[in-house]
Amino acid sequence: MNKRYDNYIGGQWVAAASYSHNINPSDLADVVGEYAQADATQVDQAIAAARAAFPAWSTSGIQARSDALDKVGSEILARREELGVLLAREEGKTLPEAIGEVTRAGNIFKFYAGECLRQAGEVLASVRPGVSVEVTREPLGVIGLITPWNFPIAIPAWKVAPALAYGNCVVLKPADLVPGCAWAIAEIISRAGFPAGVFNLVMGSGRVVGEAIVQNKQVDGVSFTGSVGVGRSIAASCVARGAKVQLEMGGKNPQVILDDADLKTAVELSVQSAFYSTGQRCTASSRLIVTAGIHDQFVAAMAERMQSITVGNALEKGTDIGPVVSQAQLEQDLRYIEIGKAEGARLVCGGERVSCAQDGYYLAPTLFADCTADMRISREEIFGPVANIIKVADYDEALAMANATEFGLSAGICTTSLKYANHYKRHAQAGMVMVNLPTAGVDYHVPFGGRKGSSYGSREQGKYAQEFYTTVKTTYVG
Predict the structure, then answer these.
(1) Taking every annotated instance into account, which residue ranges of this chain make up the domain Aldehyde dehydrogenase (predicted)?
(2) Catalytic residue chosen out of the listed positions 248, 331, 343, 397
(3) Ranges for all domains in the chain classified under CATH 3.40.309.10
(4) Which 3 state secondary structure label does DSSP give 37?
(5) pLDDT tens-digit profile of 297-332?
């Protein structure tokens, strides 16, 4: 019998009517565990528990909050290898990447333990003599957090930690594909000193659990990371009832390679951006925009470098890229590869399934060349290890091509020219710009977010998280 993992509601572990198998995408015979599938009634119970806990928690001492968050962060860091194995098993990220993600999650909790003690306000003079003005921040209330499958511990951490640090109560719904890491966080939180109801975990489908969170009038704000379609639906529902909403959605991130770029640097950062984490990052660069003078060399060098990439079981030493996360994701990736071929793109390498010792969702990293901006593979987010190369004449065309997308999360440039680097930093229509670095990879203490169709609402991470998780109060004193 597989171990069963329950929901966490009002300080208690609560069984569900049904459970779902959490399957290892590297080895389909490996069941990580059976995880509860909450129904709408359990979601409402979790929200009611959070609402009941909010008055005391929102006015509690900041040292107690800080201590509890620091305890969570310390335990995550102490167990990083164990939790890294769990992450690699349920999501398919290679073990070194998985341990790195767990480390990031621990550091996030410890960062917000400090933020509890760094909350500040303002005291201003009024235009009226003898009157002063105080500007302070207060907790928003009950927050619904809906997280994706591609970063199963880091993204829950960067939503849960600031929500709790600023005095909110939380209802977390992790992606149904990867509930294990979120359950591990919940179990650690359950022993860290938080009062009952402050943190709640309800696992299950977005159609049931996510919808119940979004529609409940007792939820004051919803922070969501996931697909564009779902995000827009959540925004419409939240705005209709006056709830605050924060969305992180898609990306079709450009990586510009100029003629003057160092070729080895350009190839390495492109491989890292496009294919590592199996390309399953919203910051991955799936559009490689290359100027004419270096184009042919770059294509040849990429093809050669990709031959040395090892696809395999996420837990095995030497694996560079693990499997994609699920059968559905594999089918989507393969469908886009066929679309690219039909559109006339040239398949440079990859494009086929990979056989390994264990039955899993393995796909060779795939590179297309001779692509144009109007191709679907150039416009639509694939979310897999598939990238395409678009040839342009010069920097001006490269910049225009980089910005010719409905998304605006991350944008990179590889160049030795300070002139072009500075111009690109200012004119790339993205929330994050990388110069001579992969487009994926953001520190935990700085703001994360994009523009256009990639993001909606205030930024996540760092001190900027307070913009979503708090509300501003202006007080006059006579």
Answers:
(1) 13-474
(2) 248
(3) 254-435
(4) strand
(5) 999 999 999 999 999 999 999 999 999 999 999 999
Cα distances (angstroms) measured from residue 8 to each of 36, 60, 274, 323, 409? 10, 22, 37, 30, 33
Tell whether the model's pLDDT for residue 234 goes beyond 80.
yes
Query: Residue 379: its pLDDT value, please?
Result: 96
Which CATH architecture describes the domain 4-249+454-477? 3-Layer(aba) Sandwich (3.40)
The b/e string for 120-151 (b: 16+ C-beta within 10 A; e otherwise) is eeeeeeeeeeeeeeeeebebbbbbbbbbbbbb
Dihedral angle, C-alpha 467, 470, 472, 477, nearest 10 °: -140
Between strands 366-369 and 346-349, the pairing is antiparallel
**Catalytic (active site) residue 248:** yes
CATH superfamily of 254-435: Aldehyde Dehydrogenase; Chain A, domain 2 (3.40.309.10)
User: Where are the domain boundaries for CATH 3.40.605.10 in the chain?
Assistant: 4-249+454-477
Q: Which amino acid is at 360?
A: G
Q: What's the pLDDT at 287?
A: 98
Q: What is the mean pLDDT of the chain?
A: 97
Q: Does residue 1 surpass a pLDDT of 80?
A: no
| Residue among 107, 106, 113, 11 at smallest CA distance from 62 | 113
Radius of gyration in angstroms for the set of CA atoms belonging to the chain, rounded to a whole number: 23
Residues 259-304: pLDDT tens digits?
999 999 999 999 999 999 999 999 999 999 999 999 999 999 999 9
Beta strands in 140-198 (DSSP E): 142-146, 169-173
Average pLDDT over residues 39-65: 97
Place of tokens 């990031």: 104
